[in-house]
UniProtKB/TrEMBL annotation:
GO terms for cellular component: cytosol. This is Pyridoxine 5'-phosphate synthase. Catalyzes the complicated ring closure reaction between the two acyclic compounds 1-deoxy-D-xylulose-5-phosphate (DXP) and 3-amino-2-oxopropyl phosphate (1-amino-acetone-3-phosphate or AAP) to form pyridoxine 5'-phosphate (PNP) and inorganic phosphate. The gene is pdxJ. 3-amino-2-oxopropyl phosphate binds at N7, R18, D191, G213, H214.
Length: 243
């Protein structure tokens, strides 16, 4: 079964807009789990414009499902991971001023660096996932870093999906099949929503987890958080294509 990890960055963005504690981020994480989320994802950035480093420390004490911390492995980020030791760390090569993640790793160019980071994180007891574009060369090079999983960056899929779902999924399916051959676990995330999630799930072999935040929180404004999480879970219950 493909697990749903809810990214709660946008809840923190709303809280930060007024400088108080409404909405309560910790309660929101508890509620997401109670409503069916199988993991909680956060992506702290250096400017703390949404998730703050202290939020990560506080969440570690209350999250009872899988806790996934995403981010660029800067010294401050790695110090936070050493302190909190989440179940999963997703390495994302975003610049400090990036509005959102916008590219996967070049695992060839950064091979030696990633090997060192992956080794340390695994020694801490964390599962490691590397954020990747659906490029077969990058998948092959990811396998030699020692990472446990890759996370496919799905913005291109989401953009192409309304016009041609089959074309949109093609490179992602090839990357997923190669990941299976190489013994890599598979995650996916970015711009996934109630329109495109089921098709992705049905066509990516071995998909272990999706991380969804922006679209899910937007849907929750209209549909309610509990109902929205159940609707996303339902998309992941659809039968995958047989290979």
């Amino acid at each position: 079964m493909t697990k749903l990890s809810v990214n709660i960055n946008k809840i923190a963005t709303l809280r930060n807009a007024r400088g108080h504690n409404r909405p309560d981020l910790l309660q929101a994480a508890r509620d997401c789990e109670r409503f069916g989320a199988q993991g909680i994802t956060v992506h702290p950035r250096p400017d703390e414009r949404h998730i703050r480093y202290q939020d990560v420390r506080d969440l570690k004490a209350v999250v009872t499902t899988e806790f996934n911390i995403e981010g660029n492995p800067t010294p401050d980020f790695l110090d936070l991971v050493r302190e909190t030791r989440p179940e999963q760390v997703t390495l994302v090569p975003d610049a400090p001023d990036a509005i959102t993640s916008n590219a996967g790793w070049d695992t060839i160019r950064h091979q030696e660096y990633l090997q060192g980071v992956v080794r340390e994180l695994k020694e801490l007891g964390c599962r490691v996932s590397i954020f990747l574009d659906p490029d077969l060369d990058m998948v092959r090079a990811a396998a030699t870093t020692g990472t446990d999983r890759i996370e496919l960056y799905t913005e291109d899929y989401a953009r192409q999906y309304p016009q041609d779902p089959a074309a949109a999924i093609r490179s992602y399916r090839a990357a997923a099949e190669l990941a299976q051959e190489l013994g890599l676990g598979l995650n996916a995330g970015h711009d996934l929503d109630l329109d495109n999630l089921a098709y992705l799930h049905q066509n990516l072999p071995g998909l272990a987890e999706v991380s969804i935040g922006h679209a899910l929180i937007c849907d929750a404004l209209y549909l309610g958080l509990e109902n929205t999480i159940q609707l996303y879970r339902r998309q992941l219950a659809s039968s995958p294509t047989q290979y």
